[in-house]
Amino acid sequence: MDVESRQGPKGGDTMAASEVSVDWRGRPCGSRKHGGMKAAVFVLGIQAFEMMAIAAVGNNLITYVFNEMHYPLSKSANIVTNFIGTVFLLSLLGGFLSDSYLGSFWTMLIFGFVELSGFILLAVQAHLPQLRPPACDMMAAAAEAAGECEEAGGVKAGIFFAALYLVALGSGCLKPNIIAHGADQFRRGGGGGDGDGDGDGGDGKRLSSYFNAAYFSFCVGELVALTVLVWVQTRSGMDVGFGVSAAAMAVGLISLVAGVFFYRNKPPQGSIFMPIAKVFIAAVTKRKQVCPSSSSSIAASQTVIPATGAAPVHRINKFRFLDKACVKVQDGHGRGGGDGGKESVWPPCTPAEVEQVKVLLCVVPIFACTIVFNTILAQLQTFSVQQGSAMDTRIGSGGGGAAFHIPPASLQAIPYLVLIALVPAYEACFVPAMRRATGVDTGITPLQRIGVGLFAVTFSMVAAALVEARRRRHAGLLSIFWIAPQFLVFGVSEMFTAVGLIEFFYKQSLSGMQAFLTSMTYCSYSFGFYLSSVLVSLVNKVTSGDVAGGGSAGGGWLSDNDLNKDRLDLFYWLLAGLSLLNFFNYLFWSRWYSKSVETTMQVAGVRGEGGGGGGGEQQEEKGVDEVNMDH
């Protein structure tokens, strides 16, 4: 038996090709003409305008579903969370299509127009009364007798859900490609990074700065949506609001197309799942073979080639059974694979292919630990909006003149207003200070950044529970600004967790899979919103009839359309407890991940120009030093 140390017939070429960037005509990019911030700024444009459009719809959607479509409050909350969850789940489809067949630019352009068509259809339905149920006051109906308002059904419901999920399809396929395409303008590979974002060179710093700039762009889009666009929806009607979202989406598409001459484009590589399937099938087929005695034997058996512009591949000391996929088997010689035998019809995989599959498996627990974080986000976009509706929304005394009323959904703008100042301060002050203290180019590693956010978000739910308990004691008299802290704490925690997670996934160095890996970030949002729907239904079922425990007679904590009868405060406390448990779970898995990554190295299957074995050893030693320093 020996371990294959060759260039795979397709794997090596694929990985090499994945590092090649072309312009809009398919010609090799020029280092000065293409890429860099001059190209990324157009991507930041569609990032801001698309976020502006989708946030204006998503953050105030529960108001439209409840007041105009006449669905009960708990069902309305589930419709919103299912919609947002679907947006993020479909990001997997967008990442797959981009990496495999279309490329990020064409994926964004095609599905950008799909999203635009959904906004237009929503605006048309909101404008035409015959496409909606008859007007009815749901709050008055809830106070008098349930079921008086006609719930949307039939063709009307069909049009609504068709429009809603056109938006979900377009936005979901767009999101991961916005991040990946922008980051591709800076990515040069190499640099000795370990995939944790802490050992990169100058390009790693620029890439990390780009992720912060992308989050800043995201905050600007959210802020405009939650102030100007939500105010338009409240003042001029949802039809005008949806129309403005459509206009914002159109401007974003114009920004995307305007940068076409400057983009560095990564060509699609064919199905990204075939190399993954190949590794698993090869490992199962060769399951009776002897696994290499140590992970170092695989490294020793391969030619380590430093690649110019190629991303390094992790050496993972977990999932050793997959190393059997690299075994070269000779028929007729059993485990020994002696000379003269006929080679097995199933070719061995390259170590690079095996290590990339291991990376995918290793990041799954990190991904799973962020689901509860996004379940909390779901509450801020649903129940917290309704919580604000049940409070005093006036600004000023109102004596002598009409007081200004704040749209409850606009309260979500508070953290983004603060973050617009905090994100540049984080990049200009926090990162350099932490860089001097830790020696890490990005200040703190992405895993540490995620952990800070997961710990902080618990206090968002603590604040929400305390304020809701106080609101119940002062029904209708408590100012809406009391719920600002829960939004503010979540916004700060999101700056750490969301950006850290995107950076962590993108820097896993899976050649040709950047968009798909980035989509896992959004998939976490999806599972978080779906979990929210499950929790709402489960809590209602468990607490049904639990009058002593806070539930209403015959119903659960969240079964009424009236928050004064529901026990939203207890639900918030439940989420705070889950969040704290999730943080300790994350500490375990982040430590497990750190111990799994032995080193970062170039392995066979990653092609490069020039360089020899000595350069590879230097690269390996550098990777070891970085991992030891960071972990």
UniProtKB/TrEMBL annotation:
Record keywords, A-Z: Membrane, Transmembrane, Transmembrane helix
Domain of life: Eukaryota
Compartment(s) of residence: Membrane
An annotated Gene Ontology molecular function: transmembrane transporter activity
Region (Disordered): 606-631
Name of the protein in its database record: Major facilitator superfamily (MFS) profile domain-containing protein
Signal peptide stretch: none
Membrane topology: Multi-pass membrane protein
Transmembrane spans: 40-67, 79-97, 103-124, 213-234, 240-263, 359-380, 413-434, 446-467, 479-504, 516-539, 570-589
Listed PANTHER family: OLIGOPEPTIDE TRANSPORTER-RELATED (PTHR11654)
Stretches with biased composition (Basic and acidic residues): 619-631
Organism of derivation: Oryza meridionalis
Compositional bias (Gly residues): 607-617
SUPFAM superfamilies: MFS general substrate transporter
Protein family according to the UniProt entry: Belongs to the major facilitator superfamily. Proton-dependent oligopeptide transporter (POT/PTR) (TC 2.A.17) family.
GO cellular component: membrane
